[in-house]
Design a protein that fits this description.
The chain has about 300 residues and is an all-alpha fold. The chain is built from 16 helices and no strands. It is about 75% helix and about 0% strand.
Length: about 300
């Protein structure tokens, strides 16, 4: 490598680290569900304002990721899955990450309020506060219900998108919130099963650490059983048609099969998987695809309808 090439590569690395602070993979799902909430809401919004609303949701989600990484830098350094994140790896100073996150959060709320409407801005501010103060700082290190209660933070985006169009929070927006809220525990506990050693080492009371693998698998199935009928509520309420209903039913059946395999995974006497948690890994990946397709089908159904 030449001396001329070196600074450019260092610069690229720095940019990647600042982007990594935003948790872009998590942001993708947040932005998508926010966009769907905006698309399916009754009424219309100017394309520029719609783009601004979705951008604010994305920036706010990234801000939450940066503040979360600042606060969790001690446990991130302990867990193999997160040890190479920019702060524990020493590539970004903690105070700089905190300032970055706060600036993005305040900017996103202000722009949403000034450009779109105050209701959308208020719900956006609530989602940030819930993720940072309720989930990250209060629940995550104190209770195995951290994901159950804290999951509300990730369920706000479709409500924000809906409010951006309508200037209100209506019943259907609450239903969309509920779908993501109930989806979150089986989604995240599937991850927690195969990241159990990391959480145990860091002292994080995730359900597999506190209650064991068997109970976690049981709870994953129970929450999924509650999720499937909830996803059909938009159809029962006449908000969506058969495209969405059939998609939700088929996806629900697939999700149930996926989590049943997690439940029936070969385990030792303590509930530890004897297959390296292969079913849990598969269920985690499927759950992400599940939510993308489910919300995408709702948008397609509404557009065609």
């Amino acid at each position: 490598m030449s001396v001329v090439d070196a600074p450019a590569q260092v610069g690229e690395s720095d940019v990647k680290d600042w982007i990594a602070l935003l948790k872009p993979r998590v942001m993708t799902l947040v932005v998508f569900t926010g966009l769907i909430g905006l698309m399916v809401a009754p009424g219309s919004i100017h394309p520029v304002l719609g783009f601004t609303a979705v951008l604010c949701i994305a920036v706010a989600a990234g801000a939450c990721g940066a503040i979360n990484m600042w606060y969790d830098r001690d446990i991130d350094a302990i867990m193999r899955r997160t040890a190479n994140r920019p702060i524990p790896a020493g590539r970004i100073e903690p105070t700089a990450a905190l300032g970055y996150g706060i600036t993005l959060a305040v900017g996103a709320v202000l722009v949403m309020g000034l450009a779109v409407n105050l209701i959308a801005a208020a719900v956006l501010a609530l989602s940030i506060a819930f993720y940072v103060f309720v989930y990250t700082m209060w629940l995550k290190r104190r209770t195995p219900q951290n994901i159950v209660i804290g999951g509300a933070a990730g369920a706000f985006p479709p409500v924000i998108g809906w409010a951006a169009v309508t200037g209100s929070v209506d019943l259907m927006a609450v239903v969309l919130f509920g779908i993501i809220f109930i989806w979150t525990p089986p989604h995240f506990w599937s991850l927690a099963l195969w990241a159990n050693d990391d959480y145990r080492r860091a002292g994080i009371p995730m359900l597999p650490v506190v209650a064991g693998g068997k109970e976690t698998r049981k709870q994953i199935v129970l929450y999924t059983l509650g999720l499937v009928p909830l996803t059909l509520v938009p159809w029962f309420m006449g908000f969506s048609g058969m495209i969405y209903a059939v998609t939700a039913a088929v996806l629900g059946a697939g999700f149930l099969v996926s989590v049943w395999r997690v439940f029936k995974d070969k385990q030792d006497a303590t509930g530890v998987s004897l297959t390296n948690d292969a079913p849990a890994r598969a269920a985690f990946k499927f759950s992400i695809l599940y939510l993308f397709i489910l919300f995408g089908a709702l948008a397609i159904d509404r557009i065609i309808g």
